[in-house]
Amino acid sequence: MISGNQDKNGNLVIKIEGSLSAYNAGDIKDRLLTGFTNHQGVILDINGVTECDTLGIQLLLSARKTAEMLNKTFNVTGDSPSVQDMLTGLGLEAEDFPCVLKED
Amino acid sequence: MNESNRFIEEFCHEAEELLSGVEDAVLDIEENPGDQEAVNRLFRAMHTIKGSGSMFGFDAIAEFSHHVETAMDKVRNGTVPVTKTLIDLILVSRDRITAMLAEANGDGPPADPREGEKIIASLKALLSSHGAAAPDENPPKETPEQASEPAKPVQQNQAVYRIRFSPDPDIFFTGMDPVILLYDLADMGECSVVAQTEKVPDLENLSPESCYLFWDIILTTAKRINAVKDVFVFVEDKCKIDIKTVEEEVITSEQMPGPRLGDILVERGDIDRKTLDKQFGTRKKIGERLVESGALSKEKIKSALNEQTVVSKMHKSAAASTVRVPSDRLDKLINLVGELVINQARLTQVASNREDTDLGESVEEIERLTGELRDSVLNIRMMPIGTTFNKFRRLVRDLSSQLNKEIELVTHGAETELDKTVLERLDDPLIHLIRNSLDHGVEPPGLRELKGKPAKGTIILSARHKGTNVVITIQDDGAGLNVDTIRQKAVEKGLIPENAELSDKKIFAQIFAPGFSTAKEVTSISGRGVGMDVVKRTIESLRGRIDIDSVPGEGTKITLILPLTLAIINGLLVSIDDDFFVLPLMSVEECVEIKSKEIEMINGRNILNVRGDMVPYIRLRDRFHMGNRRPEKEHIVITDVNDSRIGFVVDHVIGGHQTVIKPLGPAFKNIKDISGATILGDGTVALILDTNVLLESA
Amino acid sequence: MAKVIMTADDSTSIRQMVSFTLNQAGYDVIEAEDGLDAADKLAGIHVDMLLTDLNMPNKNGLELIEWVRSMPRFKFMPIIMLTTEAETEMKQKGKAAGATGWIVKPFKPEQLLALVKRILR
Asked: Where are the domains of chain C?
């Protein structure tokens, strides 16, 4: 399940519950793109993610790249063991993800 | 054994049915030679008898039916016509298989092997007379290529493989996630995986179901290169897989120096020698320099660095003999190296301010050597956790018989290394956690059977590296924690308000509160409700954290995350005015920028609204009486301490920092909220904050 | 939650052996006796993995794999073929139709289990 609303800094907060994987990568991608187009940036809340695969992580990497290009905020918050495990398994570090909001 | 008998019986039964079907099919074909459906039925019957026969050990039957199957295949595709001879042959074959089955079951006379050979010869003659190739002398020896035999404990030399794995972009459409193959490699030995993200496009250009990632893997294993290749057998035709042996262990007494990073990069074909040579003579490390100049991605360098580490380590382990050294001498050495690292950083800073190439080059060399020295010295204190794990085997055995439970302890990652001082202090907390699982977690065998679980419970103890941390988990397949009981107890003890709305995780965390115990009666094993809080305190004193997760009916999992060593931590460097502070990165959740006017609005309560969540905060500037020259924009670092979120307001967030911890002198022993200090490259001192103590004083 | 595996095979003995082995290891198993039966059963349930024989009446293994892959909710599901011999042509066709991998009969229960655990972890 994917849901979203805007926070006080003008970022779109997208909450993902359940799966962050091949099956919904397309849907989430569309949400992320809308977020970057219409908002200051995107905060992705992964607290409820219970299933994650390589394509799910790849989507986060692509979103990070997009944010850098557009000079927008992209922040992943929350704690999800399945996302953590997948990051480790794929040879990525949790630190590879922006935890610090960009200064501009 | 009973089960396999059951399958054999089932097979015989099935084969009999198939054979009677064969008779019907043959008669149908005889009536109507064009009955393709009947021919198919015949083929499938033989095919199944062959396949299942071989599965359940009827090799003779499998081999015989292989010949009949081949003949039927030829009939099916029209190479061999249906003739009376063929039909007769099939019928005698059918009888022959029946006889073989009866013999195998012990209720028939031994079938004459010559009769079988005669039938096979006739079948072959029939096929060749129609120009069809005769069936093979023997059915192809079926070698299950992908069968992962349990690892044989053959003592074999270790080798280091360098693997670049570029999956087919469409790999997901074959139901394969490349991470599965990475896990397989990790199971084979010591494995470092670096994901290469350079090909991942931005969202606009991303086809979300294609895989753009590829990987560099350095694998140290006793397995042969073919075993490594076998991992990729399902994907080898479409994916690009490049496996190279980098190093095979040679036993020499000579200590060879490890390879240089530049050489590794050239050998991998990531960069050519010319580009590389251009980078020399500059004062930066070659890796950093290459990334900055855009010649190579950060990840490529990271993976080459991994290879360098692994190969150097192998050189070192080649001449393995041991010397016993008192640990205080080691401590002194580590202290000295810490000093050296700090001074070297200053030296680098000073040298970079002078335009002196000679000085620059030698400083660069010293920097490299110091780094290597630091890593080697820290390595001396590293010990595998296996010895600690082994102690628990006995503990589990004794305690489970005392409790009349059947419990098996499974351990993973015994070779995971961590600092001896950390390891020594882990004994007690681990014993306590395992006892808890034994006593409260795993149910008695009778109850387990009622719930449909195997009577024997399992506790899995595992350790693995994750970045610069070690993750230890204790997992049982017991009853799990009861949220309601814990909540009720916590309310009774006044730990949480009665109507508090808390997540399950928050409620589970209550068991770490002092004086909390959920056991209905006190047993001699899990004690009297002291313990879990002590466990948590011990882990925190090691700069680690503890997490708990539980599913009712399925079990409980406790995760300890610990730094590899106490001498160095991963910190987040922040500043207030011109002073620097380090927060342990492990507890940092996020950093948010705040404008001073936003703070005024909610001032007086020291609570900040972060996306709807009320987060209390401490302004470090006030806490340390640092005056009131607040900048327009401040930053708040939100941390998770003892499962509650708390923010620390600072002027600037500088970034991650590998912090060499220097203890404060005895004069400062009363300062509790600072746990140490570190010296930055330019000689500035940064204080390391103890978030636990700061939280208590909030 | 236990993972659900479907085994499609026209041989009862193999189906039972597969079911028993996987049940013992804690998986839920749904048996199908041929491709058509498998397709019928898949229409109404969630399945995490499919183990299929290639030579089956009604709908054979290849047709089954093609059909499964055409269903959006099984687009990325692992499919393992139970091949009777190292028959490269059949295996290639299966791979082309979207199968994940294969196991060659005869196999031991442990080998099957090791493969399933690898793919489903």
From this structure: 4-120
Which residues on chain B are in Cβ contact (under 8 Å) with C1?
A: none
CA distance linking residue A97 with residue B224, whole number of Å: 36
Residue with tokens 């202090």: B425
**Confidence bin at B665 (pLDDT 50/70/90):** confident
C-chain residue closest to A24, CA distance: C73
Peptide bond preceding B150 in cis form (omega within 30 of 0): no
**Cα distances (Å, whole numbers) of residue A103 to A56, B600, B636:** 27, 21, 13
Q: For this structure, is B47 an active site residue?
A: yes
What is d(CA C90, CA C70) in angstroms, rounded to the nearest whole number? 20
Q: Is B175 within 8 Å of chain C by CB? A: yes
d(CA B220, CA B158): 6
- Tell me the average pLDDT across B4-8: 74
Candidate from B206, B585, B612 with C-beta closest to A62: B206
Q: CA quadruple B182, A17, B465, B147: dihedral positive or negative?
A: negative
Structure tokens at B645: 């979120």
Hey, what domains does chain B have and what are their CATH numbers?
Answer: 2-129 (1.20.120.160), 159-256+267-272+293-318 (3.30.70), 327-381 (1.10.287), 384-563 (3.30.565.10), 568-697 (2.30.30.40)
Please say whether the beta carbons of B262 and B286 come within 8 A.
Answer: yes
Which residues of A are less than 8 Å from C73 in CB distance? 23
pLDDT beyond 80 at B413: yes
Rounded CA separation C56/C10 (Å): 6
Q: Is the dihedral of CA B58, B61, B64, B65 positive or negative?
A: negative
The neighbouring-strand residues paired with B407 are B457
Judging contacts by C-beta atoms under 8 Å, the chain B residues touching residue C56 are 44
Burial B649-677 (b: 16+ CB within 10 A, else e): bbbbbbeebebbbbeeeeeeeeeebbbbb
3-state secondary structure of B640: strand
Domain A2-96: CATH superfamily is: STAS domain (3.30.750.24)
Q: Strands A11-20, A2-6: parallel, antiparallel or unpaired by DSSP?
A: antiparallel
Q: Which fold has domain C4-120?
A: Rossmann fold (3.40.50)
The rounded distance, in Å, linking the Cα atoms of B575 and C45 is 57
Q: DSSP letter at B671?
A: -
Find, in chain A, the residue whose alpha carbon is nearest to that of B570: A95
Question: Would you call A43 and B611 a contact, using CB atoms and an 8 Å cutoff?
Answer: yes
CB B243 within 8 A of CB B165: no
User: What average pLDDT does the segment B567-586 reach?
Assistant: 84
Residue B352 pLDDT more than 90?
Answer: no
Residues of chain A contacting C75 with CB distance shorter than 8 Å: 22-23
Q: Kindly indicate whether the ipTM for this predicted assembly is greater than 0.85, answering yes or no.
A: yes
- B417 has catalytic annotation: no
Count Cβ atoms below 10 Å from residue B510 Cβ, excluding itself: 22
The answer to whether residue B436 is catalytic is: yes
DSSP B662: B
Give percent above pLDDT 70 in chain B: 84
User: Token digits for B566?
Assistant: 């106490």
**Rounded to an integer, what distance in angstroms lies between the CA atom of residue B148 and that of residue C117?**
11
Name residues whose C-beta falls within 8 Å of residue B310's C-beta, 6 or more positions apart in sequence.
Answer: B160, B190, B192, B218, B220, B247
- Check: CB of residue B595 under 8 Å from CB of residue B632: yes
* A66 to chain C, closest Cα gap in Å: 26
> Closest residue of B to C108, CA-based?
B55
d(CA B534, CA B551): 24
Q: Which of A21-30, B176-185, B238-247, B531-540 is the least confident region?
A: B531-540
What are the distances in angstroms from CA B681 to CA B349, B576, B592, B653, B685? Answer: 6, 18, 27, 17, 9
